[in-house]
Amino acid sequence: MANLTWLYAKAALTGFTRRGSSLPPDVRTARVSVDREHLAAYDRVCGFGVREELPVTYPHVLAFPLQIELMTGRGFPFPLPGLVHVANRITQHRPLLAAEPLDLRVHVENLRPHERGRQFDVVSTASVDGEQVWVDVSTYLRRGGGSGGTEPGDRPEPPRPTGVWEVGGDIGRRYAEVSGDRNPIHLHALTARAFGFRRAIAHGMWSKARCVAAFEGRLPAACTVDVRFKAPVLLPAEVDFSASPTGAGWRFALWSERPHLEGTITG
Q: For the purposes of burial, counting CB atoms within 10 Å of the CB of 26, is it exposed (0-12), middle (13-18) or buried (19 or more)?
């Protein structure tokens, strides 16, 4: 797969020249085998137990280099810096095991208006022996040129917490090591300030994985985990995690002074 350090440098150098009104039809593919040491490191950073079964969020980091390669490729209309990851939905059709090689495929689709700009989906899939077993849809927002939204109403009451988590100031660097996502907004306060953040912020996909880890042992074999990313988690932080059963599965959220993440798990 492509070198992520080079791709981030390419994104910084070419970002000002990217213009366009459509998404490219390009597809990126790769066959990957799970490195168990890497899997164990991911498990530790995100709060999972070390097991042969892959966390439902783990294939996302395997597909991430292909996603970045596609979004820095010729014909992609938006600069990578400034894209906001606003949602992620993962559907797993059956448990995946570390011994299974995965055939990954990534494409982009569904460019559409948003009240604050335009949004699109990066779709990643994993197949085993020709059978699609895992689908990840990451929705990104490109700000600018939107219609504007309605005035926000009263801030909703936070749900009652079922856990309180201390998030260390180094979690951005630790997750960057296992995910390859070394966006400077996650690494240090100094580099985050250059992009308008008071402190470094946690990766959205770390926040999602940490929430999913709280359900370990309770997830159905086939499930969909759908989240909306709200406000960033400024590091270090103390955050409240809440989970409540629904008729179809679970609802969960991550809060501090404001909501950071809201999600559902359905079987």
A: middle
* 58: three-class secondary structure by DSSP: helix
For residues 259 and 253, what is the distance between their CA atoms, to the nearest angstrom?
7
- The DSSP H or E segment spanning 138 is strand 131-143
Return the structure tokens found at 229.
């990313």
Count Cβ atoms within 10 A of the Cβ of residue 90 and give its class: 0-12 exposed, 13-18 middle, 19 or more buried. Answer: buried
Condensed to tens digits (0 to 9), the pLDDT of residues 106-135 reads 999 999 999 989 999 999 999 999 999 999
Number of independent structural domains in the chain? 1
pLDDT digits (tens, 9 = 90+) for 12-68: 656 556 566 899 999 999 999 999 999 999 999 999 999 999 999 999 999 999 999
- What is the residue range of 226's domain? 4-266
Query: Given the structure tokens 């400077």, which residue do they identify?
Result: 184
Instruction: Tell me the C-alpha to C-alpha distance, in Å, between residue 250 and each of 47, 211, 262, 265.
Output: 19, 11, 11, 5
Q: 190: domain CATH number? A: 3.10.129.10
